[in-house]
Specification:
It is built from 15 helices and eleven strands. The protein is α/β, with parallel strands linked by helices and about 350 residues long. It has one domain: TIM Barrel (Alpha-Beta Barrel), CATH 3.20.20.70. Helix 4 packs across helix 13 and helix 5 packs parallel to helix 7. Its cofactor is [4Fe-4S] cluster. Keywords: 4Fe-4S, Iron, Iron-sulfur, Metal-binding, S-adenosyl-L-methionine. It comes from Candidatus Reconcilbacillus cellulovorans.
């Protein structure tokens, strides 16, 4: 992969120095959006020396675009049935465990338990199984959830425009599609079997969701699968493309890192917290009006810190297993391990104490 004007990424990052980072930060203080070359500078090793200055500039941009608001949501896992073999996922088809798909009564019970915690936004999550969680099932689930929540988003298999339009008509207003990894050879190696191997079909899914009338669309790379700087660069450029083409859509970027899961697969390119912080700050400076999502994969202290400068949306009180809120949890398999295990009210209290406004 090559950067702008034929320049290899490594050369662009190696040639960037602290004065280049300072120049880009001065540009953001003038309320001028960085261009793609500036984005490369913000992701460079030189920028890692300037994190404090980047954090201050990012905090100013976040306040200007979002004020003190922080949107809280909970994931609701509807089904762990999946036909794909994605090496990094606990739900991969070759992991042997009893699969579960919630009935309509169980969906209602899970939703009621989440709502009772104070959450008003929900992200419905499934594996990729046309038989267990096809579009018809998703539409019925969306109808149940839309009656209980102010906002319903889905993180499901990549769909056609017509399918997304049907979900929108059923009450879904947001779609999350993690590309997982933008480097195509790596994408094919970690997606061993199943329809998710179709790289371009997944890459273009967020655009199809926008075309179908979704109000919110979130993209992102699963950090740890490939070089994080390249992955964040392409995720940021992907988000900017969607923002520019669909100005009425609220575009977001999520920052999941590979977490331990049943199966024990190890990330080939682990990403530390310092690198994650730099990635989030760079995206905030590059895309000042973008939603930035940070999940309970991360430590409470890091999440509390990053809402001041970058993150706008936090998952809260999360369960990553099917039936994890109201159902019988014995023997259930989570998609990944949660790190921030605080209850919703604890997260809300911490945000208020920090001067933020959780909604």
């Amino acid at each position: 992969m090559r950067g702008l004007k034929g320049m290899p990424f490594e050369e662009a990052w190696r040639s960037a120095g602290v004065p280049d980072v300072e120049r880009v930060l001065r540009k953001t203080l003038r309320k001028t959006d960085p261009d793609a070359a500036d984005f490369l500078v913000l992701l460079s090793p030189a920028a890692s020396i300037c994190l404090e200055a980047m954090e201050e500039a990012a905090a100013e941009r976040r306040r200007a675009a979002f004020g003190a608001s922080v949107a809280l949501f909970s994931p609701l896992y509807l089904s762990d049935a999946c036909v794909n073999v994605c090496l990094y996922c606990g739900f991969r088809a070759d992991n042997r465990f009893p699969r579960k798909t919630l009935s309509e009564d169980e969906i209602a019970a899970e939703a009621d338990a989440i709502r009772a915690s104070g959450i008003r936004r929900v992200l419905a999550v499934t594996g990729d199984s046309p038989r267990a969680s096809g579009v018809g099932y998703l539409k019925r689930a969306a109808g149940l959830l839309a009656r209980r929540f102010d906002s319903v988003a889905v993180e499901v298999q990549a769909l056609d425009v017509g399918d997304y339009a049907e979900l929108a008509a059923s009450g879904v207003d947001g779609v999350t599609v993690h590309q997982e990894v933008y480097d195509e050879p790596t994408y094919r190696s970690v997606h061993a079997k199943g329809p998710k191997r179709r790289y371009r079909y997944r890459l273009e899914a967020p655009e199809r969701a926008c075309t179908a009338g979704m109000r919110r669309v979130t993209v992102g790379a699963l950090l740890g699968l490939a070089d994080w700087r390249k992955e964040i660069f392409f995720a940021g450029m992907h988000a900017r493309y969607l923002r520019d083409r669909f100005p009425g859509v609220r575009v977001g970027v999520a920052f999941p890192r590979v977490c331990p899961h049943p199966g024990g697969w190890k990330a080939p390119c682990p990403v530390g917290e310092r690198e994650l912080v730099q990635a989030m700050l760079a995206v905030r400076l590059f895309l000042p009006d973008a939603v930035i999502v940070l999940s309970t994969r991360e430590r409470a202290e890091l999440r509390d810190r990053m809402v001041r400068s970058a993150a706008t949306d936090l998952s809260a009180g999360s369960s990553t297993e099917v039936g994890g809120y109201a159902g019988e949890r014995v023997g259930r398999v989570p998609q990944f391990e949660i790190v921030d295990r605080r209850r919703v009210e604890e997260i809300r209290a911490a945000l208020i104490a920090a001067g933020m406004d959780p909604i």
